[in-house]
């Protein structure tokens, strides 16, 4: 046993005769406490010894409609353990109280030497007690004396739920094909739990969905406890044909009577989208080996921004020649189309049949390619040669007939 | 020389129709045609079974009927390539010398019929019989196909089938002309028959063996010069195309397999980005076989001319 405790015990026994003191010590923390001690002040500069019943907030207010829980602690410094009976006095009619230690209702507690016992006082106010200020005391009685801890409680109206919506980045920029993901924090600043319904007002064609951040499930509502916050992801999917421009999306959260709204802005930039199509929409044609054949292709810009500096390329079979006229188109406005003549010359050694020639248009940020099927026809020269051979044979026959046919 | 009086073709149709009628009633032709008919039906029936077992979908099902083979039988086309010359030889090997042997030649020519008319009539009569046989066979095969496959042939298949019929007809005509030439040249029918059969055996059996040998002699391959290998292949192709069997085989290949794009040597660069297996249009297939067909028609005309010249110069008082 430490020396100072022995030293402190003797005066406690000899001088104290059940005096009740409730004093604030200059060395103690600025907290309400009830002390049962012998050498109140002055005896020593060492830490005080004695038995205390304390609470951090002796005067406070609480919302009505709920049980009020007050944290108490019974501290023993330098005294032998002793039984302390606990009770609450001075509560008006209709109030109920209970002291709990480690979750169980208790009526008395023992604090070991230099230990602290945590207790909680649970008060159940009557329903009509709004605005009342109640003064009551927690009384602790030991065999050496009694302590009182006076407390003041004011019951107030409960604060209703109050919602705020806070977007992290309220304006995003992208193309009509991208998905815009806004991070929004919804907070309940009130003192009541609530269920938040999520709504969005978007221009027609825009799809808005709510998700938990890093979650995959779409939400329509979510429970939000008092003082709680939730991070949401608001995904906006614009229609692919959306014109370039700024589009506002209003996001609203409502829960009970409270609601909050915030505006998100989508800044959609246009993009060109090229589409190449063959003559008359067909992707096949005929050509004769060794002879140039011209096909009129149509290049359409289906995007939302003009397509610029479009050049053409092709990958013909070996020995083939493919030329474009014009070789380059400077600009096709959105929604406009332009025609380009593709001249295809099959190799003069090409054999009859179908070949694939891929034709490609490359613009700034947009391109399209098509596989064009060319049916090669062989030249009819050999047909004429065959006829010539037959004609020669018939001529020989004719000569024979004129020479020998006279008998 | 005095000018000939009247048309040289007087009595042509009479001779041709009589010749055809004689053939149609002769036991020799009955036997040969029975052989052809039985083998053809067997081949087609086997082909239908094969098609039913293996083909799920084909745009040219009726053409497969002609070209599909099922072990141990060869395909209909292979049968025709082998047997059509036999039919033609049977029809023509004693066309002229048979008349001498029966001592009827001077009797016929004492009628108001020119020699031109007689020879042409004999040839046309044989061709008529061949045409009737082939048309019957073709209709039989197509009918069997419709009956057993349950599908009508498409327009393109009909066009290709008719072109195949024409090719077979010209092929048989060439062999008829060969037989006619030998029957004119030799007085004995046995000799002319043997001579014709010799030519037929040469082209059918030995030509595929001889062609590479002759090509090897004409265009030796230098292993350090790949162009000589190409030259060798080309020479070999030219030599093998002297045989009507080769020409007929190439024609049936191009007509009955629409995927055939070329009958000659094809280099890889000619096939770059080509859609292998895409069928050729009918017109292109016809263009492909036209040189072969033209050569066969020309050969037919030249052979007939030889027979004509030989016959005109012959002494017929026998």
UniProtKB/TrEMBL annotation, chain A:
What is the annotated signal peptide range for this record? 1-34
Q: What is this protein called?
A: NEW3 domain-containing protein
Extract the PANTHER family matched here: ALPHA-GALACTOSIDASE NEW3 DOMAIN-CONTAINING PROTEIN, HYPOTHETICAL MEMBRANE PROTEIN, CONSERVED
Can the keyword Lyase be found in this entry's annotation?
Answer: no
Sorted alphabetically, which Gene3D superfamilies does this protein's record hold? Answer: Immunoglobulins (2.60.40.10)
Chain segments annotated as transmembrane = 381-401
This protein's species is: Chelativorans intermedius
Give the source's domain of life in one word.
Answer: Bacteria
Ranges where the Alpha-galactosidase NEW3 domain occurs: 179-254, 287-361
UniProt keyword list: Membrane, Signal, Transmembrane, Transmembrane helix
| Pfam families per record | NPCBM_assoc
From TrEMBL, chain B:
Q: Which residues form a coiled coil?
A: none
Instruction: Enumerate the Pfam families for this protein.
Output: ABC2_membrane_2
Highest taxon listed in the record's lineage:
Bacteria
Which UniProt keywords are given for this protein, alphabetically ordered? Membrane, Transmembrane, Transmembrane helix
Record carries keyword Transmembrane helix: yes
Q: Where are the transmembrane segments?
A: 31-52, 72-96, 117-141, 161-182, 194-219, 289-311
Q: Does the keyword Transmembrane helix apply?
A: yes
Q: What is this protein called?
A: ABC transporter permease
């Amino acid at each position: 046993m430490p020396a100072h405790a022995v030293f402190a015990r003797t005066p406690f026994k000899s001088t104290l005769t059940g005096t009740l003191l409730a004093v604030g010590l200059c060395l103690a923390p600025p907290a309400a406490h009830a002390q049962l001690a012998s050498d109140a002040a002055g005896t020593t500069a060492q830490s005080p010894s004695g038995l205390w019943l304390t609470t951090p907030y002796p005067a406070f207010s609480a919302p009505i409609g709920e049980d009020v829980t007050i944290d108490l602690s019974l501290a023993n410094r330098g005294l032998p353990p002793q039984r302390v009976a606990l009770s609450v006095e001075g509560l008006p009619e209709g109030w109920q109280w209970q002291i709990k230690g480690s979750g169980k209702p208790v009526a008395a507690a023992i604090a070991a030497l230099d230990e602290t016992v945590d207790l909680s006082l649970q008060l159940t106010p009557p329903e009509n007690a709004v605005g009342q200020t109640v003064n009551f005391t927690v009384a602790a009685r030991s065999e050496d004396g009694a302590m009182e801890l006076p407390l003041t409680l004011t019951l107030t109206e409960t604060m209703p739920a109050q919602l705020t919506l806070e977007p992290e980045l309220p304006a995003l920029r992208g193309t009509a094909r991208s998905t815009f993901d806004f991070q929004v924090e919804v907070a309940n600043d009130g003192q009541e739990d609530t269920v938040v319904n999520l709504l969005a007002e978007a221009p027609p064609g825009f799809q808005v969905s709510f998700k938990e951040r890093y979650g995959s499930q779409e939400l329509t509502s979510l429970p939000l406890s008092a003082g709680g916050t939730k991070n949401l992801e608001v995904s906006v999917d614009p229609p692919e044909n959306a014109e370039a421009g700024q589009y506002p999306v209003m996001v609203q959260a409502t829960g009970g009577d409270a609601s909050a709204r915030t505006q998100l802005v989508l800044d959609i930039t246009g993009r060109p989208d090229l589409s190449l199509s063959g003559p008359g929409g067909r992707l096949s044609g005929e050509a004769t080996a060794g002879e140039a054949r011209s096909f009129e292709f149509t290049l359409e810009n289906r995007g939302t921004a003009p397509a610029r500096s479009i050049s053409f390329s092709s990958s013909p079979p070996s020995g083939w020649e493919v030329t474009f006229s014009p070789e380059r188109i400077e600009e096709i406005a959105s929604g406009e189309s332009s025609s380009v003549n593709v001249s295809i010359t099959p190799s003069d050694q090409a054999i009859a049949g179908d070949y694939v020639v891929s034709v490609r248009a490359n613009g700034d940020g947009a391109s399209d390619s098509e596989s064009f099927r060319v049916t090669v026809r062989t030249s009819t020269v050999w047909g004429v040669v065959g006829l010539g051979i037959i004609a020669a044979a018939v001529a020989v026959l004719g000569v024979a007939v004129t020479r020998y046919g006279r008998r | 020389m005095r000018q000939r009086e009247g048309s040289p073709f007087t009595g042509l149709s009479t001779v041709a129709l009589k010749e055809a009628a004689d053939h149609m009633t002769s036991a020799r032709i009955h036997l040969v045609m029975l052989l052809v008919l039985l083998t053809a039906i067997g081949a087609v029936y086997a082909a239908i079974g094969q098609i039913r077992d293996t083909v799920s979908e084909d745009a040219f099902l009726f053409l497969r009927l002609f070209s599909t083979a099922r072990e141990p039988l060869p395909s209909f086309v292979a049968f025709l390539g082998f047997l059509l010359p036999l039919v033609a030889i049977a029809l023509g090997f004693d066309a002229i010398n048979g008349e001498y042997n029966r001592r009827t030649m001077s009797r016929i020519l004492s009628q108001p019929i020119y020699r031109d008319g007689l020879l042409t009539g004999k040839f046309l009569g044989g061709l008529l019989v061949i045409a009737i046989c082939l048309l019957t066979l073709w209709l039989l095969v197509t009918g069997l196909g419709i009956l057993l496959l349950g599908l009508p042939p498409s327009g393109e298949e009909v066009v290709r089938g008719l072109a195949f019929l024409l090719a077979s007809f010209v092929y048989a005509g060439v062999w008829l002309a060969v037989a006619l030439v030998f029957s004119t040249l030799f007085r004995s029918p046995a000799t002319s028959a043997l001579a014709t059969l010799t030519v037929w055996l040469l082209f059918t059996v030995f030509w595929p063996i001889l062609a590479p040998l002759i090509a090897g002699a004409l265009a030796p391959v230098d292993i350090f010069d790949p162009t000589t290998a190409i030259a060798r292949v080309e020479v070999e192709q030219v030599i093998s195309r002297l045989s009507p069997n080769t020409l007929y085989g190439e024609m049936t290949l191009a007509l009955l397999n629409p995927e055939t794009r070329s009958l000659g040597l094809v280099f890889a660069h000619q096939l770059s980005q080509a859609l292998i297996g895409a069928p050729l249009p009918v017109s292109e297939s016809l263009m492909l076989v036209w040189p072969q067909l033209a050569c066969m028609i020309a050969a037919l005309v030249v052979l007939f001319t030889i027979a004509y010249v030989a016959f005109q110069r012959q002494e017929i008082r026998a």
